[in-house]
Amino acid sequence: MVQKFGLALALGAALTATQARGVLPAGPETVGLAELPVEARQTRERILSGGPFPYAKDGTVFGNRERLLPREKRGYYREYTVKTPGAKNRGARRIVCGGEKPAAPDACYYTADHYASFRRIVQ
């Protein structure tokens, strides 16, 4: 263990004791595509086909100010509205995707609580 701490210090890295033991913090939990509400699956299909999108804010840059998603350069993440039945506004549900090509994202995340939590969408 001392060697790991020494190496971390030598590299100028600031590791917690947990990280030094090789246990890194977990990223967002996952959710299977089939577990998502039908509206989220429809939104994901629109993303992969490049639109059209029903809301003007769909496809705009998501800043990740909450720092709940992996850190990436500004412009990497884009957000899309997931329709909420009965809502008179955009509601709280979103899909946020990251990648250089919006229609071919590296990863997509679902939030049902307006960015308070995220789950990575998996097949």
Please give a handful of descriptors for the protein shown.
20% strand; 6-stranded mixed beta sheet; alpha+beta; 21% helix; Nuclear Transport Factor 2, Chain: A; globular; single chain; 123 residues; disordered N terminus
Briefly, what is this?
The protein is built from 3 helices and 6 strands; from the N terminus they run H-H-E-H-E-E-E-E-E. With 123 residues, the protein is α+β, with helices and mostly antiparallel strands.
Question: How would you describe this structure to a colleague?
Answer:
With 123 residues, the chain is of the alpha+beta class. The chain has one domain (28-122): Microbial ribonucleases (Nuclear Transport Factor 2, Chain: A), CATH 3.10.450. Helix content is 21%, strand content 20%. It has helices spanning 2-11, 17-20, 38-49, and strands spanning 29-32, 60-61, 77-81, 94-98, 107-111, 119-122. Strands 1-6-5-4-3-2 form a six-stranded mixed sheet, with helices on one face. A hairpin with a 7-residue loop joins strand 5 (107-111) and strand 6 (119-122). Residues 1-25 have low confidence and may be disordered.
CATH architecture: Roll
SS-derived structural category: alpha+beta
What's the Cα radius of gyration?
18 Å
CATH superfamily: Microbial ribonucleases
How far apart, in Å, are the first and last alpha carbons?
A: 38 Å
Give me the count of strands: 6
Provide mean pLDDT, rounded: 83
Strand content: 15-25%
**Residues in helix, %:** 10-25%
Shape assignment: globular
Major β-sheet strand ordering = 1-6-5-4-3-2
Name of the CATH first level = Alpha Beta
